[in-house]
Amino acid sequence: MSDAFRPRSRTPSPHLGGEAEPPSDLAAWEPPAQGGTPTPPTDSPLPMYLLAQQARRAEGDEQKRLAWNLNQLLAEMGAQGGGRPEADAFHRLLEGGNLDGLVDADGRSCRATAVEALLALGFPYALEVRPEDLEHLRNAPIPGIRMTPPAGGPFPALAVGLGALALQVVLGWLG
């Protein structure tokens, strides 16, 4: 019977020196990786999620105060810029409905602030904003700005503008 068909022993055969040679085709043993979850870095979006959850659970003035803090954090993250992790964090907040109904004491919606921050990240993340979020931003009131037309409609403003133009023309002829 040839060696090719002879069953092999599971124990390594000793060589001339009497010691078994370790197989060379096996990888070196490494201890298993440590389990558990690592502490998130300080620049992670985790504080944003926690603040949103706290604001949703709070009521009255406390909710408005937490919403104001959240708006400040969202605006700061948008101003600092970022990449995919930040954009994904904003998307998770918006798509999860975590910001719905959260309005700070100034009347600013947390959802609108998050959309603005996502748009501030620029290309390509600004292209990923959902149409309903853009609609919310467009319809959201801007604190400190009066959104109603002036009394009397546009005609008083038009009259003042045309009067100033006529004055410029007359002064141009005289001067």
From TrEMBL:
The species this protein was found in: Corallococcus aberystwythensis
Domain of life: Bacteria
High-level lineage: Bacteria, Pseudomonadati, Myxococcota, Myxococcia, Myxococcales
Record field: transmembrane: 155-174
Region (Disordered) location: 1-46
Protein name: Uncharacterized protein
The entry's keywords: Membrane, Transmembrane, Transmembrane helix
